[in-house]
Fold this sequence. Notes:
Blueprint: H1 17-21, E1 30-33, H2 39-50, E2 54-59, H3 62-69, E3 76-80, H4 86-99, E4 105-108, E5 119-120, E6 124-125, H5 126-141, H6 143-148, E7 152-157, H7 181-203, E8 208-214, H8 228-233, H9 245-250, H10 254-257, H11 259-266, E9 276-279, E10 282-283, H12 304-318
Parallel strand pairs: 1-2, 1-4, 2-3, 4-7, 7-8, 8-9
Antiparallel strand pairs: 5-6, 9-10
Amino acid sequence: MTKQAPINSPFHAKSTALDVVAGVDLSGKYAIVTGGYSGIGVETVRALLSAGADILVPALDAGRAKEALKEFGARVAVATMDLSDLASVRKFAGDVVAAGKPVHLLINNAGVMACPETRVGDNWELQFATNHIGHFALTNELAPSLKKAKSARVVCLSSTGHKLSPIRWGDIHFTKEPYNKWVAYGQSKTANSLFAVELDARLKDDGVRAFAVHPGGIVTPLQRHLDQEEMIALGWLGPDGELSEMAKQMFKTPEQGASTTVWAATSAMLDGEGGVYCENCEIAMLGGDASPRWAEVQPYAVDKNEAARLWEETGRMIG
């Protein structure tokens, strides 16, 4: 099991990404932020840029990404990449490695949530393929550039949604049982956390540390596959279609939602740490059967044996 214990961070659930990087100097650092052109991805880019980093944003729709990021100027570049297409991922990563620049920060931020059943690749379920397999391939392909940085961090966006499902070893891609969009999402978020655990174990001797983060509840384009009725049923919206009182208290703004990502990527408090799951700008407590739905991390999502098994299984999937 990883060491899941708070370290007295000065930040909290409502801190913003810009709060977190105040006084942080990322001059000369190079960052890659997947999904960095919408939702909390944009705020992650904004914060890293403000601290002096140069940033590359891989995007499924490069034109849309360039339009969304034009306010940031030339220090934020865009390149085409489709996380659900391994050839596209390898082309993007190959270009980065060939360019010879070290990658100091890799933010695996992009994702899909609760989408209709969709198949990609080798009959893979889309959420697992995009959220986990694509980022697994991307990170491994970028390993030479991460190692070249001598001190790099990889941040994997997980979610409290991991509590919806551990890894379904007997039927990861829902080829035997009926598809359930929320179970599929939960499994993919467990995979994101386990990936950080094993990546850290494998690359820490090369100066690469990895972290999983839960950004918090935020209204972003991630909810694009949910209709209003479903969000009312979940308690996120009231009957009038506006944010519910619960959501107003618990949900974060995108600026706040990006803060844990940026904290994990830049905080000196995490020097020498890695392979842990973070939330609210802090290392999360280990949960259990009585753990609250919206906080802490379940043991199966940070289990080293599960993490090693997932690495091997994903490696087989992508050959």
